[in-house]
Amino acid sequence: MDSLGPVDVAVLAIASRAVPEVAPRYLARGICTVDSFDIHGDAAMELRQRLDVAGRGGHAAAVICAGWDPGTDSVVRALLECIAPRGITYTNFGPGMSMGHTVAVKALPGVKDALSLTLPQGTGKHKRHVYVTLQEGADFEEVRGAILADPYFRHDECHVFPAEDIRSLLDLGHGVHMERKGVAGRSHNQRMEFSMSVMNPAATAQVMVSAARAALRQKPGSYTMLEIPLLDFLPGDRDALLRRLV
Q1: Tens digit of pLDDT for each residue in 222-236?
Q2: Do 25 and 62 reside in the same domain of the chain?
């Protein structure tokens, strides 16, 4: 880092579980951070609080969970609730490769290579197929047990398969189909859908670059994408953007 000269933003392309330890080091030096932390719920809120303290102390901003889910999908879910405040939203991922789940498996002892596929079952439920190539001497049942016990996997139906060559199975595509059925005022049966199919690493990287731009426009602290004006993510003149997008 020191050899790079002045650094404005560090884009942390690292495993989610490493972010809580790595990000504060940059924030303490006055360098904004962007991560694609992908663990929902309490873990994300704990990260937000931790980096908020670090960011304020170092006079820098952190944009957390800046991928596409959590991230841009979080923004879409909020917009759907604006249209139908009461109701249920189902977020269905895949079919495709989950980078976060794949990285989590690769970090387990005995795993040489891995691939985790997310298969949508509808109404927000998912099945996971995990393929592993083992290191020499590793026991498949031990590795399988560790995967099934991992918080990334234990809430979904999960099947683990041995594989000789992960490269023959690899497809970086992924996607999401979001559905909301709800009520607006007295009007029932308000139905909305959002769908996309993407090359997972490319989509995540683009969101992180946009979040890096937004980070430089925020006061010190920690932010999710939901808390930042959308225009802060976009390049160009603000008035021109408003004229084109409104």
Answers
A1: 999 999 999 999 999
A2: yes
